[in-house]
Amino acid sequence: MSLQAYLATTxxxxxxxxxxxxxRPPGPLVWAWASGEERGRALASLCARLTGQHPDxxxxxxxxxxxxxxxxxxxxxxxxxxxxxxxxxxLKPDVVLWAGSNLRPALLHSLSEExxxxxxxxxxxxxxxxxxxxxxxxxxxxxxxxLVDTLYAxxxxxxxxxxxxxxxxxxxxVAGPLMDTDMPLPCADxxxxxxxxxxxxxxxxxAARLRGGETYDILAAHRQAVRLNHRLLLVxxxxxxxxxxxxxxxxxxxxxxxxxxxxxxxxxxxxxVIITEGPETLGLWYRIAPLAYxxxxxVNGVGGEDPYEAATLGTAILYGPNVGGHLRSxxxxxxxxxxxxxxDADSLAAAVLHLVAPDQAAAMAHAGWDVISSGAELxxxxxxxxxxxxxxRGAV
Length: 396
What we know:
By secondary structure, this protein is α/β, with parallel strands linked by helices. Helices cover 41% and strands 16% of the residues. It folds into two domains: 177 residues, Rossmann fold, CATH 3.40.50.2000; 185 residues, Rossmann fold.
């Protein structure tokens, strides 16, 4: 009754000028919607994996899921029943992937009416939220969730909340959060073995995708750390060519003993810093260095870098306070014990000296790998469910 009462308030005229919709792609279709930038990237990544394994499946991305590859990107309709009904009838998706607890009851109802198999992802222990309706109406969110065929909760607390809302326990699965985990950056085995031998067992830490404005803090931290661990080696991978020029000038002014990797130089026992020209070799250096500071986080306006890139390759992570572009990801890794925040050169130097020890770095790397593994398992499970639904419908 709560859903019917809510729908009654959305039955008025639709938009004066409904958005024009392109022809529905032929064949099986998955419509994917997400709330939030990070969750949107993660859902788009999942859909890319899905089409990689099932290339005949068409993807339509919506909400905060960014345009990706060849997938069609269409804005969701207004939360008016006529608009939602027309949208759902036009696309007629076989499967809906809905990421996040921000619900659209009229749209979910219309998609369900058209026979879509609805999968909800990344449901947390926070209450599900539906658009504001008349104050006398009961909350339509539980009834909207009841339209969902499979509910993937991020943890047991989220699953308990769903059960308290009256959801069938057989439809609830504790599967961890949805994460944007791409394939690990590549590196040739022979190159890795050769470079590892060159390091001669020296402790190594990495500054990955470093910005020019962070250079002073990184070099100052390294100079402090080297006083207590003279064999410590820093590898700097700039974010771009412009940053590389600024970093190189600063390193020379600091009178550190440099190895310019891309000019064919080879590090020796006296080398203090290796500088590359860009991020193309990060697949190698993440594998070499047990500990990495991730750039763009000690300066404003960047938002940090994706920490899963490092965690996927077993690297312990240090980062600055400015990671607004990936806050959920860093928070998850911090809670697992896989990442640690630093705020300046002094705290960075102290963290490097402590965490570059093999046992400390290994513990953080293992924690990060557990997070990555749980995310990969969720992606594999969802892809398998989508394939099963499409196969049962004869769509693949």
